[in-house]
Amino acid sequence: MGQASPVPVEETPALFTGRRWFIPSALLHELDPDTARAGRRPRRTARDWVVDFSCFLLAVVVGAIAIEALEENPHVPRELAVVDQVIGALACAAVWLRRRWPLGLAVAMTPVSFVSDTSGGAGLIALFTLAVHRSFRYVAWVGGANMAMVPLYYWLRPDVDVPYVVSVPFAMLLTVAIVGWGMFVRAKRQLMLSLRDRARRAETEARLRAEQAQRLAREAIAREMHDVLAHRLTLLSVHAGALEFRPDAPPAETARAAGVIRESAHEALQDLREIIGVLRAGEPDDTGRPQPTLAGLDTLVAESREAGMKVSLDHRVGDSAAVPASVGRTAYRITQEGLTNARKHAPGTEVTVCVTGAPGDGLTVSVRNPPPEGEVPPVPGSGQGLIGLTERATLAGGRLEHGPTPEGGFEVRAWLPWP
């Protein structure tokens, strides 16, 4: 038996950390999955050496007591007593093999204990080891064979000091006690292994939950990045395109477009800095910028109008502050994405934004645009904006529908709960 491989900290419960030399090698073998998979046998631990030496010493003591009883028994010839002692010595030496071959040793010790008085202690130790290391079906067969031979043993070799009716029940009771003790030790070890498995499963589930939470957080950040930066960068694209195709524009319009580009670039960089700050591990978000709410729709529409869009806002919610923050933020992002898409795919059209609702009835947000005039140049995009909006509305407890209108335009319509 070679020295056991170190038990990985992540695979071994904290109860065993730093105490491996005081744990049975069989239990360490189960706790070390690498050793178990490789089929290697662990060396005895310090505890194993102490236990094995104690078992050997106990077998020798019992054998010595049996030698004294043999010498006082007039029914046992001298030559038979010598043979008995030789067999008993070999049986005591075989105790050191109990961990390697528990079943074979217990089976071999059954007839040996029947013919040799001095090997009785070794036979009981072998039966105890079998109960610890093997299942009950093996223990039942071997233990049953030992108990079946007890009456015949004391019939052929009666004790000179103890009556037959006392010796047989006592020997049977001792056998049952040894088997019960071994099964108790085995059950305790199996309980420790089951607790180890539960701890490992709990750690795995916790890691999976953490990974899932991290993935959901990253998806939420990705949606936020798309909603925020798409709007800002679309404004940049529109005004930069105007400056490119109208180099002879009046200085006032050029200055206004340049101002919008500068402001949009500044806002986009600030939003990007916030999102990157969230992604960095251990960096707190101390920007303190408030999240958008339904009250920010007027500002959003004003920015779009400054970019040259025709936007009509029909805001029928009397008190925007009464709308829950999460609902208002979702409505803001839906409107923002709808205006961004209209600016990309239907430039020059008049976009109608309608917001209605009341507590108990929910909040309805609609962004509609007519079909564009003429051919619209293709605009690069990820195609994930509407998918993200649908998921956002679903997570908020509402629903979102989008698609072409009968007139050939496009509409994004969402309903959000407002308790």
UniProtKB/TrEMBL annotation:
It comes from Streptomyces lomondensis. It comes from the Bacteria. It catalyses: ATP + protein L-histidine = ADP + protein N-phospho-L-histidine. CDD domains: HATPase_UhpB-NarQ-NarX-like. The chain crosses the membrane at residues 49-70, 105-131, 138-156, 162-184. This is histidine kinase. GO terms for molecular function: kinase activity. Its EC number is 2.7.13.3. Residues 218-282 form the Signal transduction histidine kinase subgroup 3 dimerisation and phosphoacceptor domain. Pfam families: HisKA_3 (PF07730). InterPro entries: HATPase_C_sf, Sensor_HK_TwoCompSys, Sig_transdc_His_kin_sub3_dim/P. Keywords: ATP-binding, Kinase, Membrane, Nucleotide-binding, Phosphoprotein, Transferase, Transmembrane, Transmembrane helix, Two-component regulatory system.
